[in-house]
Amino acid sequence: MVRLSLPSGAPSLADAVVESIRAGITAGELVPGRTYSVYQLAEVLEVSRSPVREALLRLAEAGLVQIDRNRGFRVVLPRARDITEIFDIRLALEPAAARRAAELAADDEHAAIRAAFEGLGAAVHDEDRFWLADQQLHDRLMRAGGNQRAAAIIERLRATTALLGPPTTTAGRTLPEICDEHEPIVTAVLERRGADAESTMRHHLEHTGRLLARTLQRDPPGEAVSQSAPRRAAAAG
Q1: Is 36:53 a contact under the CB 8 Å cutoff?
Q2: How far apart are CA 233 and CA 169, in angstroms?
Q3: pTM
C-alpha cells in the first residue's frame, strides 16, 4: 500500500499533490517503472481525481512521470544523458541572464540577490534550508535578468533534477564549497561586471553538471531514491 500525505502550506491542492508525489518518490513509496493509477493516488491522498490529474500533467511536462493513457502513470527518473541535456539548456540561458542582471537590473533587484546569497551562506549547516536558499538565489538571478519565461524554464529543469540522487556533495563538494562557488557570480553581478558574471556562472554550471553526470553514471538514481538529502542536493547549481 502506497503511503503518501499532503503537505501543508501549498498554494493550491494540485501543488500539494505535486509535492506529495515528489516526496513519495524520494521515500521509495512510488517506485520507478511501476504503474500507478489516478484513482489510487486520489484515494490515498483523500482528494478528488482532478487535482491529481493536474499534478501529473505538471510532472509529465517536467519529465518526472510518464502518463500511459487508460492505465495510469509511471515514475521516470533522469539519467546521466538527461542531466547533460538539462545543463546544456541551463548553460544557454543562465550565463546570459547573469550578465543582464549585472548590467541592467535595478538596485532593489541587486539588494534581493545580495540577501539571497546571504541566506545561502547562513544555511551551510542546514541542508533543507541550503537547497531552498540555492534555488531562491538562482531564481533571483534569472528574474533580475529580465526574462520571466527563461526563469520559468529553469525552474522546471531544476524540478526535474530535484528528484535525483546521489548528491553533488558526495562527488567532491561540501555545502560551504558550493556556497563559495556562488560568491564570484554574485560579486560580479553586484559590481555590474557583466562579462565576469556571465563567465563565472558558466563555470559554476559546467562544474555542477559534470559532477552530477559523472556521479549518476557511477550510481544510478534508483539506488539512491530513498534518501532525502540526495534529492535536494541534485538540484544544486
Answers
A1: no
A2: 7
A3: 0.74
8 Å CB contact between 115 and 131: no
Asked if residues 29 and 3 have their Cβ atoms less than 8 Å apart, the reply is: yes
Please, what is the Cα angle at 101 between 97 and 104, to 5 degrees?
A: 120
Top pLDDT among 212 and 124 is at 124
Note whether 94 and 154 are within 8 A (CB).
yes
For CA atoms 227, 83, 63, 221, the dihedral sign is negative
Residue 225 predicted with pLDDT over 60: no
Asked whether the beta carbons of 179 and 121 are under 8 A apart, the reply is: yes
In angstroms, the CA 175 to CA 125 distance is 8
74 strand-pairing partners: 35, 66
Nearest to 16 by CA among 60, 67, 50, 62: 50
Does residue 47 contact residue 13 with C-beta atoms inside 8 Å?
yes
For residue 47, give the H/E element and its range: none
